[in-house]
Design brief:
This protein is an alpha+beta fold. The chain has 11 helices and 12 strands. It folds into 2 domains: 1-61 and 305-335, Hypothetical Oxidoreductase Yiak, Chain: A, domain 1; 71-182 and 225-304, Malate/L-lactate/L-sulpholactate dehydrogenase, NADPH binding domain (Ribosomal Protein S8, Chain: A, domain 1).
């Protein structure tokens, strides 16, 4: 199958031009471009260029407003909310972080809710930013319903990722955990469907609750929760934090991220930033160092997020290979 090899600069240029030509203003296009580039550098291709056609289509049909300007709709001490205004999540989160970071530094703990939002891409991309400022970060984001409650067959929760990032001694994150409540992120099934490839058994169920390896059938069914009832429980926690607590749209009422119907998704994100200096301080750093060493001293182990970080230099040097069909499609958006 024919592929095209792109440099990281090519990825950035193609992403920005595709978004700009899809009714998205300069500021918003740059925020989303940074996220797409970061996903490709981390080797998370399902959230990189493979996701870009959906972003472009949604900006063109109005499912996301590429010209929206997020606003701070509520601010009170350590708690505040950003209204995305049906636009891309990334510029709204960036706006919120401008207050979240200094407020957490000052007060010890601060929280940010994001409403009327959209797919925020890789959740760990955002928590890693907070960790790089010396903050312990927790984040939650809900998504359109695709996981049934344990024992049921009708979707109630989204894949609902949770992320935690912890600062290290060198100014970078010691680790970044980013995991969906399902066995895999739904974007992985979308990629398999686009490529005409079957999915492994255990990823998804059909509409009647039976296992399936057909990605198209899976997209019409439900995702398998990670760890059975435990994954469904995690999805419920995320739904509470990202949607119920913020006042965003519940997963059961959100339109799909995968098609052009239903209007804006209006899902939510929730971030908690903690300054360790207000708590364990130096003991926190000593404990985290000891914990990391206890993990990495064993053969075959690694800290969460370590593989992504190690991929960055390699991918920056080797570039990104995408299928010719995807490249041609993205070039079409630029025309």
């Amino acid at each position: 199958m024919t592929t095209v090899n792109l440099t990281i600069d090519d990825v950035a240029d193609l992403t920005y031009k595709s978004l700009k030509a899809s009714n998205t203003n300069d500021k918003n296009a740059r925020c989303v471009t940074e996220s797409v580039v970061a996903s490709e550098l981390d080797g998370i291709h399902s959230h990189g260029l493979a996701r870009l056609p959906t972003y472009c289509e949604h900006a063109r049909c109005g499912k996301v407003d590429g010209n929206a300007e997020p606003t701070m709709s509520k601010s009170d001490g350590a708690a505040f909310t950003v209204d995305t205004k049906d636009g891309f999540a990334h510029p709204a989160i960036d706006l919120g972080f401008e207050i979240l970071i200094p407020r957490a530094k000052e007060l010890g703990v601060a929280a940010l809710g994001v409403i009327n939002s959209y797919n925020c891409g890789v959740l760990g991309y955002h928590t890693e930013k907070l960790a790089n400022y010396g903050l312990v970060a927790l984040a939650f984001t809900n998504a359109p319903a695709s996981i049934a409650p344990f024992g049921g067959i009708k979707a109630v929760f989204g894949t609902n990722p949770i992320s935690c990032a912890v600062p290290g001694e060198n100014g970078e994150a010691t680790f970044v955990i980013d995991q969906s409540s399902s066995v895999v992120a739904k974007s992985e099934i979308v990629v398999h469907n686009n490529n005409g490839e079957p999915i492994p058994e255990g990823w998804a169920l059909d509409k009647d609750g039976n296992p399936t390896t057909d990605p198209k059938t899976a997209l019409g069914g439900t995702m398998v929760p990670a760890g059975g009832y435990k994954g469904a429980g995690q999805a419920l926690i995320v739904e509470t934090m990202a949607a119920a607590l913020t006042g965003a749209t519940l997963s059961i009422n959100a339109s799909s991220f995968a098609d052009n119907t239903g209007g804006p998704t209006r899902t939510g994100q929730f971030f908690i930033a903690i300054n360790p200096d207000h708590f364990g301080g130096e003991q926190f750093r000593a404990n985290m160092k000891a914990l990391a060493e206890a993990i990495t001293s064993q053969d075959g182990t690694r800290l969460p997020g370590q593989r992504r970080i190690q991929a960055r230099d390699r991918i920056r040097n080797e570039g990104v290979a995408i299928k010719q069909a995807l490249y041609d499609k993205l070039q079409g958006y630029c025309e």
